[in-house]
Design brief:
The protein is an alpha/beta fold. The protein folds into 2 domains: 252 residues, 3-Layer(aba) Sandwich (Rossmann fold); 25 residues, no CATH class. The chain has 9 helices and 13 strands. The strands form 2 sheets. Strands 1, 2, 3, 4, 5, 6, 7, 8, 12 and 13 form a 10-stranded mixed β-sheet that branches. Strand 5 and strand 6 form a beta hairpin. The chain starts with a strand and ends with a helix.
Length: 284
């Protein structure tokens, strides 16, 4: 199976939380069982190309994209996820990604990830790589399924592509003012009260992704049930209930090499499942 994994962070390149861990380990696990996996990631200024042995894809330079009324250009860099054969493609657009932090409160935050998502699709087109599955993660990649079913619907490269959207934290939804619908290039006619792009008078990336993806997953079975309630749904519980037959809770795994108490150098006493005495010392 050909799987394209898209995320806004990925260990060891950039990490602010659990998503970074998942993006840095799940693709490797999928590749180890015989899948062909590639990852897409923004090239933030904190990602050092020399340190990570990244190379510019010379065939894909200065690719133009219209973001609203502005034309923006991006380049593509390439590397391999450490200790694996998983290819990683980095979308390089300094005007959007050379900031102090991966996420910002800047006025163009919506445009930053609009550019990233469209650049993923444009790069796949140039690679002529047709994924069976695109695995999107959180609001920063939630518009990809929308694009595939609207302005990129013409491209038969994606004719058999399905999208899985993983919701790691329902509280982060990518809500932006209506004007960014124009920036996205999506049909303005799809933005109206209770429409697929609208939530509480905002352009909501995550809502759109939930409605347009084939399957939605969360980080645990319990969380998948919780977010469909008013108490924990953060305003999206109604939308999620319309897709309840397509929502799956899959408990997040761990990298057993990194999170191994038998070899972990950051705990005072190592222990294993067969020798738990030292765990008591660690607790003390």
């Amino acid at each position: 199976m050909k799987i394209c994994f898209t995320a806004s962070e990925c260990f060891p390149y950039v990490k602010t939380g659990g998503l970074g861990d998942v993006a840095g380990t799940l693709p490797k696990a999928l590749a180890e069982i015989g899948n062909d996996v590639i990852i897409f990631l923004p090239l933030y200024s904190g990602i050092k190309t020399i340190e990570h042995n990244l190379n510019l894809v010379t065939d894909f330079q200065d690719i133009p994209l219209k973001i609203g009324n502005n034309e923006v250009k991006f380049n593509v860099w390439y590397g391999t996820l450490p200790e694996s054969e998983v290819e990683v493609y980095f979308i390089d657009c300094p005007v959007y990604f050379h900031r102090d932090m991966p996420y910002t409160n800047d006025p163009d935050e919506a445009e930053r990830f609009i550019l990233f998502q469209r650049a993923v699709i444009e790069t796949l087109q140039r690679l002529k790589w047709s994924p069976d599955i695109i695995h999107c993660n959180d609001w920063q990649t939630s518009l990809i399924p929308v694009y595939l079913k609207t302005i990129y619907k013409w491209d038969k490269l994606f004719e058999k592509t399905s999208v899985l959207l993983s919701v790691h934290n329902i509280g982060y939804q990518g809500r932006f003012p209506e004007k960014f619908v124009l920036s996205s290039g999506l049909p303005v006619s799809d933005y109206y009260p209770e429409g697929p792009l609208e939530l509480d008078h905002s352009f909501c990336f995550l809502k759109a992704g939930i409605l347009y993806s084939e399957i939605i997953s969360t980080v645990s079975p319990t969380y998948s049930r919780e977010i469909q309630t008013k108490e924990f749904g953060a305003g999206l519980e109604g939308v999620l209930n319309t897709r309840k037959e397509d929502i799956y809770g899959i408990l997040n795994g761990i990298d057993t090499d990194i999170w191994n108490p038998g070899t972990d150098k950051y705990i005072p006493n190592n222990y294993t499942v067969k020798k738990l005495n030292n765990k008591v010392l660690c607790k003390k």
